[in-house]
Amino acid sequence: MYTLKELEFLEQKTMEEEAINSIADEKEVKIDGSLTYEARIEQYFEQSKNPYFFRHKKIKVQTKFIDTKETLEDIIAELLVFLKREAEDCG
């Protein structure tokens, strides 16, 4: 597990500073959904090379963590609904 000082250092890194091969591929990180929230976070931190970055194939993605009960899936679903409505309004 990372110390608070290590996490603060990792959080300050930029996309340009992170080499593509130093970032964990999303397919390499496996999280057990039956674990508690805290245990899932710990499992993610243990498997990721930098918990603020992951990659999808050759695309680097930077993440931010917030204290909320809303999941990434919830946020993406809301985004897709918004984009669909925008496309319908334009077309």
Oligomer: single chain
Tell me what portion of residues adopts beta-strand conformation. Answer: 5-15%
User: Based on DSSP secondary structure assignment, what is the total number of beta strands?
Assistant: 2
What is the helical fraction, as a range of percent?
40-55%
Annotation field: number of helices = 3
Principal-axis shape equals: globular
Our measurement of the CA-to-CA distance between the termini, rounded to an integer number of angstroms, reads 49 Å
- pLDDT below 50 for ≥5 consecutive residues: which ranges? none
List key phrases describing it.
about 90 residues; mainly alpha; globular
Please characterize this protein's 3D structure.
This protein has a domain at 4-66. Helices cover 43% and strands 9% of the residues. It has 3 helices and 2 strands, in the order H-H-E-E-H. A two-stranded antiparallel sheet has the order 1-2. The longest helix has 19 residues, at 72-90. It is globular.
